[in-house]
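Example 3.2
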Amino acid sequence: MSVVDNPVPAAQLSRQWPEQPQRPKGRRAGYLTPGFVVGRSIWTIAVVLLVLFFMVPIVWMLLATTKTDTQVLRDNPFSFGSLTGIGTAWDHLFAFQNGVLWTWIGNSALYAFVALAITLIVSVPAGYALALTEFRGRKLLLTLTLLVMLMPSAALVLPLYLEMDKLGLAGTIWSVILPFSFFPFGVYLVYIYFSANIPPDLLNSARLDGSSEWQVFRFIAMPLARPVIALVAFFSFVGNWNNYFLPFVMLPDSDQYPAQVGLKILTTSSALFNTSSGVGNGILRPELALAAIITVIPVVVVFLFAQRSLVSGMLAGATKE
């Protein structure tokens, strides 16, 4: 007898297969719990506070360039002065020591870009060798790289100065460029990238096809490492551009100073912050705010142009096939 000839009663089927409870319709129906609302509120408040903490000084500094020094002190901190105030601050700032700020910015660009080129020439092959080749002392070099990377950069300034002095380079631009080029964090980033993303079998197959070690590195490893190269370049440039202590110790002449050390010269030349300077009409607060904005602009421009490469470089190695 077939199933069709002896159908199971509907009441029996309902007893065998109980009806499943319906889930709440809509995605938000299951999430609007008291715990979720409290957690989301705390997260939102924390984000707003962090944004205000970082944005308020920037907004104040932008608005300060539009005011006179008296308006900066007496008016509302977030009030707008006038566009002519920006021009006045610009003229006063670049009248200081015959426009020495341009010299400081040029020095910063020279030190940062030359050191960046040397950093990439050294860091990328070093990270590749530590990740994908076997040689004696490899683990020791990797350990030393990690140790130096964890040391504060200020602790190395005195040994570096003594070393440069012995080499006869103290007081020259190379006493700044060469230490800037020493970037163990970049070596470590390249090492992590190659270890996580480049399969050794791919390189071994190229070697079996007759490629030399230089050809394997140049035509296979380097094109695949473009995201991490951009990441190392950005971190190196920002670190070099913002470095203050090393150039301040190494360089004796103010004409050799980078922009960050130049900002200190501007501050100390103002009677507002240094009563011993004796300068009654020196650099005022609007000019200092404008100088700070000008020295930050190159980093912002580099970040905007390298943003896509930075994201791909930071996410590289997050997932592995």
